[in-house]
């Protein structure tokens, strides 16, 4: 079957993916944000396999993916009116709502929390899989713990190899950064992670300012300072200092990569590799993780980057770059 996005997936691929989920296996699923590593949300043993495959601590909660907003009450309880409004307006789409856990969701999927994160992905292949499967698919991004999220099926294969039973190839993810996570348990929601749905569009719908995400402390498990990180160390500098910093790094013996807007990247910068980031934030978000992977592949051991302005999708991009530059974790 062909989809509007130009992707062709056969019915037998969907059936195969459903078979793997029913048998307790792991399927990589395409979404509009990044690829997810999916398992049957109601199968604790399958959920446990996700953590092993990713090398992720089991205390880190996962997102349950469902086929439509009308199914929300099957998975959560006590949905405030604001959460209902957000679900109806933004789903399918890159918005994840944290709500009170319904009985169907095992504690293995929530890292022991009494809340659960839920979303309806806006990708025709994911939606077809979810409706054919008929249950919830719990899925973190399909990368090794702490590293760059995959936005193509090839990225998934390179990251996880045999740890995933089947990769459903739905092409390249359009949005390119993860969903916006909103704690919607209270009447005034809080953004826990900026992402594909902008803060501005949430505030426009709700008619008031939202609580800002805290960058200063670990709010929930899975929000460590270092995340989304390429192999190369990432250093963030002001745009006007990118050229000098890259040259300094080269002279100090590094293989320096540069990730900066076109005017900076096009200058005669002495670096091992240069990626000029698009001026459009939509295009930048779409390409971000691929750019980081590319600089790794070119052999860079250090990436000098500047942050975009933090409006619209720029907020999510800046958040991921800050985390990529954060102190690396030791598990
Ligand atoms: O776009 C996305 O959100 C992708 C695609 C595959 O849907 N998924 C994704 O999952 O980014 P993951 O596991 O890499 O990040 C989900 C984050 C967790 O790290 C955690 O911080 C937060 O969601 N989360 C999950 N359940 C939560 C809960 N009950 N309370 C607070 N935060 C939660
Ligand atoms: Mg992730």
- How widely separated are the two ends? 43 Å
Percentage of residues in strands: 15-25%
CATH topology label of the largest domain: DHBP synthase
Please give the share of residues in helix: 25-40%
Count of the separate structural domains: 2
- List each distinct ligand once: threonylcarbamoyladenylate, magnesium ion
Mean pLDDT: 92
Supply Rg.
20 Å
- Looking at this structure, what is the CATH superfamily of the largest domain? DHBP synthase
**How many helices?**
11
Q: Note poorly predicted spans.
A: none
Biggest sheet record: 10 strands, mixed
How are helices and strands ordered from N to C? HEEHEEHEHEHEHEEEHEHEHEHEH
Strands, total number? 14
Q: From the 3D coordinates, which CATH architecture of the largest domain would you assign? A: Alpha-Beta Complex
Q: Structural class of the helices, strands and pairings? A: alpha/beta
Described by the principal axes of the CA atoms, the overall outline is globular
Which CATH class of the largest domain is shown?
Alpha Beta
Please provide a written account of the structure.
With 331 residues, the protein is an alpha/beta fold. The chain has two domains: 196 residues, DHBP synthase; 92 residues, Rossmann fold (3-Layer(aba) Sandwich). The protein is 32% helix and 17% strand. It contains eleven helices and 14 strands. Strands 1, 2, 3, 4, 5, 6, 7, 8, 9 and 10 form a ten-stranded mixed beta sheet that branches. A four-stranded parallel beta sheet has the order 11-14-12-13, with helices on both faces. The protein is globular and about 60 Å long. The site of magnesium ion has 3 residues, from loops. Threonylcarbamoyladenylate binds next to strand 5 and strand 6.
